[in-house]
C-alpha cells in the first residue's frame, strides 16, 4: 500500500492555480466596486463642501429653488420629495401588502404561478413609460375629474406614478417574508380553532414583521430616489416656488437635479449652480443611508429565528 505524502494532500497544482486566479479575480472585482463607491462619495463630499463653504446661507432657506438665480431653497425639494413619497406609499403599501398576503396565504399554486410573474412584470416596465402613462391617462382621466382646475402635471400625479412602481417591490419582498414563516405556526393556530383571516393577521403578519418593515423602508428609499416619473409628471423644470399643495406642480430632489443637469452645457447660471446639485445629492444620500441604517436596526430588533 502506497504511503500518502504531504504533496498529495495539497491537491493538483493546476487546480490550485486556477482557484488562486479565480480568488484574485473575485477579490479585484470586490475591490473595484469598493473603490468606485469611495470615489463617488469623495466627489460628492468635495463638491458639497465647496457649496456649503461659499454659499450665502440665507439663499438655502428662501422662497424657491432657482439655482441659476442663486436661490437654493432646499425645503422646496425636500417637501416635494416627501409629498410624492407619502402619496406613493399610500397607494403601494395597502395594495402591495394585500397582494402579498393573497399570493402567500390564499392563492392556489396554479394561480400563484400566473399572478406573481404578472405582478413582477410591472417592475420591468421602464419608469419613463409609467411617467407618460400618468401624464396621459391618470392625470386627465382621474385627477382632473376628481378636482376641477387641477393641472395635468402635479405632485399628486407623480406620487401615484411612483406608487405604481412601488407595488411590485412591496408585494415581492413582503410575500417572501410571509412565505418564510414556518407552517407549524399556522398549523398551531388552526389547531386552536382560529380562522384563516385570524391566523394571517395575528400569526403570520406579526411573525414576518421584520421583513414587512424592510420592504417598506426599501420602498421609501426607492420613492425618494425615483427620477423619471417625477421629472415627467410633476410639471416643474429648472426651478419651483415653495409649494405644499400636492395638486400643484412641483419639484423633488431627484427631479431638481435632473432638470438642471439635463446636458452638461445646461449647468450654467450662478457660480454655485453646479455645486448645488452635489449639495442636493448629499442630502438625498444621507436620507437614504439613514433609512437603510434604520431598516437594519429594525430588522435586527424584531427579527424572529425559527
Provide a compact summary of the structure:
The chain has 306 residues and is mainly alpha-helical. The protein is built from 12 helices and 3 strands.
Write the layout of secondary structure elements.
Elements: H1 6-10, H2 13-54, E1 64-66, E2 71-72, H3 74-106, H4 109-124, H5 127-146, H6 155-179, H7 183-191, H8 196-207, H9 209-225, H10 228-233, E3 240-241, H11 253-260, H12 273-302
Antiparallel strand pairs: 1-2, 1-3
3D structure, described in words:
With 306 residues, the protein is mainly α. It has two domains: 47 residues; 239 residues, MetI-like (MetI-like fold, Orthogonal Bundle). Helices cover 73% and strands 2% of the residues. It is built from twelve helices and three strands; from the N terminus they run ααββααααααααβαα. The protein has a three-stranded antiparallel beta sheet with strand order 2-1-3. The longest helix is centred in the N-terminal third of the chain and has 42 residues. The protein is globular, with a radius of gyration of 25 Å. The relative contact order is 0.15.
Amino acid at each position: 500500500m502506497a504511503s500518502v505524502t504531504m504533496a498529495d494532500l495539497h491537491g493538483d497544482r493546476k487546480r490550485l492555480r486556477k482557484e488562486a486566479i479565480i480568488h484574485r479575480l473575485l477579490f479585484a472585482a470586490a475591490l473595484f466596486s469598493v473603490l468606485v463607491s469611495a470615489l463617488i462619495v469623495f466627489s460628492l463630499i468635495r463638491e458639497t463642501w465647496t457649496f456649503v463653504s461659499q454659499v450665502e446661507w440665507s439663499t438655502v432657506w428662501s422662497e424657491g429653488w432657482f439655482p441659476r438665480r442663486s436661490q437654493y431653497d432646499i425645503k422646496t425639494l425636500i417637501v416635494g420629495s416627501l409629498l410624492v413619497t407619502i402619496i406613493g406609499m399610500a397607494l403601494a403599501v395597502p395594495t402591495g401588502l394585500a397582494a402579498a398576503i393573497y399570493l402567500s396565504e390564499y392563492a392556489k399554486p396554479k394561480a400563484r404561478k400566473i399572478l406573481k410573474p404578472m405582478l413582477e412584470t410591472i417592475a420591468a416596465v421602464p419608469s419613463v413609460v409609467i411617467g407618460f402613462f400618468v401624464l396621459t391617462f391618470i392625470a386627465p382621466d382621474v385627477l382632473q375629474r376628481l378636482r376641477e382646475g387641477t393641472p395635468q402635471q402635479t405632485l399628486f400625479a407623480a406620487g401615484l406614478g411612483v406608487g405604481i412602481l412601488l407595488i411590485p417591490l412591496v408585494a415581492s419582498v413582503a410575500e417572501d417574508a410571509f412565505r418564510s414563516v414556518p407552517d407549524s405556526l399556522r398549523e398551531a393556530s388552526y389547531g386552536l380553532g382560529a380562522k384563516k383571516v385570524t391566523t394571517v393577521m395575528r400569526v403570520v403578519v406579526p411573525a414576518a414583521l421584520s421583513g414587512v418593515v424592510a420592504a417598506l423602508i426599501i420602498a421609501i428609499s426607492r420613492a425618494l430616489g425615483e427620477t423619471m416619473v417625477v421629472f415627467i409628471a410633476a410639471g416643474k423644470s429648472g426651478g419651483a416656488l415653495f409649494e405644499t399643495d400636492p395638486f400643484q406642480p412641483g419639484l423633488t430632489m431627484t427631479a431638481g437635479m435632473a432638470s438642471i443637469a439635463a446636458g452638461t452645457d445646461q449647468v450654467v447660471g450662478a457660480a454655485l449652480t453646479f455645486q448645488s446639485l452635489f449639495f442636493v445629492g448629499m442630502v438625498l444620500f444621507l436620507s437614504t443611508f439613514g433609512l437603510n441604517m434604520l431598516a437594519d436596526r429594525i430588522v435586527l430588533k424584531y427579527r424572529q429565528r425559527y
